[in-house]
Amino acid sequence: MDILNRFQSGMIILKVLENNHYSVLYFNDGFAAMLGYDREELQTALDEGMDMAELVYPADRKRVAHVFPRVTEAGYEGKAFRMVQKKNNVIWVLGDYKRNELDGEEVLCISYINISQLIGEQIKLEESNNMWMDIANNVPLGMLIFSQEHDKTTTIAVNDSLVDFSNSVGYVLDGVVRDWSKEQLMMLFNQSIYTFCHEDDAYLVRDMLEQSKENPVADCRFRLRGSSDTNNVWIYSQCSSKQVSDGCRNYYVTFQNVTKEVVQEEELRENHEMLLDMSYRDALTGVKNRNSYDQYIAYCKKNRQHHVGIVFADVNGLKEINDTMGHLQGDHMISNFARILIEAFSKEHVFRISGDEFVVVIPNIDKMEFQQRMKIVLNRVFDYDEIASVGYIWKESVSDIKRRASQAEQLMYVEKQRYYEGKRAVKSKHRSKMLEDLMAELEQGRYVMYLQPKSNIQDTNIVGAEALVRKITPQGEVVSPYEFVPIFEQEKLISLIDYFILEEACKFLERLARKGNHQFKISVNMSRVTMAENDYIYKIISICNRYSFSRSQLEFEITESAQTMDNMRMEKDIAELKGLGFGVSLDDVGTEYSSFPMLTLDGIDTVKLDRSFIVKMKNPKVDKLISYIIEMSHDLGLYVIAEGVETDEDRQSLRDKCCDMYQGYLLSRPIPAEEFKERFLNNI
């Protein structure tokens, strides 16, 4: 408000609402005074419901209303119209409308100049062509009157105020004292109507003169001739014109020195830009903040980015540092890591989205170059004693940055897990207590492998089993995986369960192999969270190499419960598993839309029809969908196994649809591995 009150003209800022509605944010003392109000008096009237439109002369309200949409489209509009003062006096004003942003919201900044006197003098000129000089001298502003007839310009009058004005602005420009006379000024204007105007701004004056032919008053702001980048004198002009005869038009132009106002306006703009920049910058690191990140996400939804590298990083052990060494040391740690990212990707591509989390989004980068930069980042992270955990991906085309960043985040959590497993003494906000409890319970044998049999659809002969996990409480109660698996997936601890069940399955297959059974197959679930680990293939090989059995007897079921990887990475990993001799099946087909595109990935052997379809198989639409999925899978060269088969009627219906295998309570519910062996494999 202090800055607005420096302006001599009336100033007002309106907040843009929906449907071309507006509310008053600020106005200065000059605006209130122009309308004959005290500032407090006008504010009270507005607070009590007075509409801004009531201040506009009724006949001009429609014309003023048309200004707002044009300003929204073009960013600027000038309009002369009448306003009503407090005592119902009518004045002419020139409104200068500009669209801007303030604190992230769209606003209209409007300046008003009372031009009633100019309009009045114009009327007097129309009454008598013999009073030009006297009328011009009655105008307090510097005034020029000239005519144009058949492209010939003739200066009619300059007033005393314009003489004083020209001498004063010349002195402001270069400190040289001038003593122009009216005759000299008239001669200068006869030589060029743009005599005051900087060469680069002549088009502004020319446009003003043209606009005056269509509007009561036109205006412009230009630099004085001789201005430079370091020393500008700004002049504000208003122009009215009238056709006085065929081919002849008179122009009435006023001049004001508005250098001070322009400087103040520039300061206001710079301050606004500084505040705006501060609202989109992280004060500690100088990178962009969460506001900027959210804005960029919205931008990318409308403007797809190509060849994009995305990084998600989290500073390790920050809470422990803050608690034990103080927040200054924690801030130093954050700044050091931010510097690593800035040096690799530049400040404009790095976002600090929370206290210890950073996202990097860098479009138009070659995959090889991105990987090379990431190698530098990871080396620096290691040099700083693993200052942060980092996950990253590269995509050819991205519109949903948030979703892709989430994939990088899951990879980051895998690295975070490895970090805290290696430093279990460090307290982490992520999952230290849950990790410690899970490790202890695994060591205590609280988690065991259950097996559920599988059979060919034609009979009940057992040909394989699915390995499932159960938790046994100290009281001997069996806990369903639905009570703990989702939590472990959310906390990115599910890989410990996956690797435990894998090893139990390998032990079981080795025992069968020693007895000569090399055909029985076991499938184990492999979460996509686990598959997001960079070295999970190595861990699988390490576990399997400890035991002797045919790898063709082991099948990995990929679940759809955690969307952490892109299909390009998934296809690569599936191909690697197939190359090692393992089978691969896709679990829960049909429960999520994303599972259908995965059917096309090379390396998938089997698809598992989810139980939710089987229980609704009597529904004609579901029955047709099951037939369609089975037929589609066979066309793609895939085997189909149905889970949740509880009645022989269901088995026969699936057999008629050419399903290959089934599992469910018709055969057996999941049972402990030893009980399974005695019940179904007792001949071994």
Structure description:
This protein is α+β, with helices and mostly antiparallel strands. 42% of the residues lie in helices and 25% in strands. The protein contains 26 helices and 24 strands. It has an eight-stranded mixed barrel, surrounded by four helices. A five-stranded antiparallel sheet has the order 2-1-5-4-3, sandwiched between helices. It has a five-stranded antiparallel sheet with strand order 7-6-10-9-8, sandwiched between helices. The longest helix has 22 residues, at 401-422. The radius of gyration is 40 Å and the shape is elongated.
Write the layout of secondary structure elements.
Elements (H helix, E strand, L loop, with lengths): L9 E7 L5 E6 L1 H6 L4 H9 L13 H5 L1 H8 L1 E9 L5 E13 L2 E10 L1 H12 L4 H6 L4 E8 L2 E7 L1 H15 L7 H10 L10 H10 L6 E6 L10 E12 L2 E10 L1 H21 L10 H13 L2 E11 L2 H8 L1 H19 L4 E3 L4 E6 L4 H17 L4 E11 L2 H22 L9 H12 L3 E10 L5 E11 L5 E2 L5 H6 L3 H21 L6 E6 L1 H4 L4 H9 L9 E5 L8 H13 L3 E7 L5 H4 L7 E4 L1 H4 L5 H16 L3 E4 L5 H9 L4 E2 L8 E2 H8 L4
Parallel strand pairs: 16-18, 18-19, 19-20, 20-21, 21-22, 22-23
Antiparallel strand pairs: 1-2, 1-5, 3-4, 4-5, 6-7, 6-10, 8-9, 9-10, 11-13, 11-14, 12-13, 15-16, 15-23, 15-24, 16-17
In short:
With 684 residues, the chain is of the alpha+beta class. The strands form 4 sheets. Strands 15-16-18-19-20-21-22-23 form an 8-stranded mixed barrel, surrounded by 4 helices.
